[in-house]
Amino acid sequence: MAVVRLRQRLVFCRSLLALVKAGVPMTTALADMARVQSRALRAALRRAGARLQTGATLAEALDQIGALVDPATRALLAGGAESGRLEQTLGRRVKQLEEAQRLVGRMLVYSIYPLYLLAALVFVGPLLSLPAAMQTGACNGSLATIYLRNMFGMVGLVAAIVTGLLALPLLVAALGLEVDADRVLLRMPVSGRLYHDLYGMRLAGGLSTALAAGVEVIRALRLASEGMSSPSLAARIGPASDRLASGGSLTDALAEFGVFDPSALGQVVVAERTGELDDALDRIAQELSESVLRRARLAAFLVLGLLVAVLLAAAVAKMLGVIFGSISGAYQLPDRIDRL
Known about the structure:
By secondary structure, this protein is an all-alpha fold. It has helices at residues 6-21, 26-34, 39-53, 58-62, 71-83, 86-128, 130-136, 143-174, 178-187, 189-212, 217-226, 237-245, 250-255, 262-274, 277-339. Helix content is 81%, strand content 0%.
């Protein structure tokens, strides 16, 4: 299966929205977009167009291009087509994908700025260990040689730590510990609120789009819940749907997930009374998106700040070793003279 990035999904949905607005038939729209895709995606889009020509529904046709359209989006677009709101549904989905891309970009920026401090430590840190290396005679050669050796050692340490952090999710997946890891992240002081807001943003955004597309509320809740992509919260989809099926309110069902604070749930209560659920949920998703950005910036600075503090402490410890070693040597000098 072809690997598809978020930007490719966004471009596909934007193009499809433009063609739908222009009144282009769906089969023609898929054929037009197939001309600018890779070989695998081109074949998938052509298969989707062929399915439509044989009388298949939009959902059945979109099943052929799963790489470009995730299951939640396929269900939402199918609901929009059935209710005659395909253009509105596509517009909301494009807006959500744009927000997701902006979120990813901002998080990358937040992680880059602290890296400048880390880079400074990599280059300045070895200078702090030069006196210790020269006094002990552990390293032979010029100052430049000693500095380069220490710098490469610092680079290796930083690279090992970063590689370990990046490989951790793969290790968790290989051991089948995704649910346990997700629970731990949701309970930790800093990452807990970040992941609560992230899952809440996805839930509110998906539910808003589904309701605007005319999807029945229980099915909409299931689609939006699956779109959270939370291994641990997936077990709460059943109880939340049962609350709705037994006559409970949407607010009660959303409270089952524990990702909305009282303020957000209060907005849902009011929206249920006024009949403006999709707009209220869209506003909640935007508010949570801003909260995710703030918490991601804080988490990035805390993690990299901790890393810098550890590496700096190691370098300072070497300097103090040199200082106190020199003082100790001065106190021992009279004894050495007496022995001579």
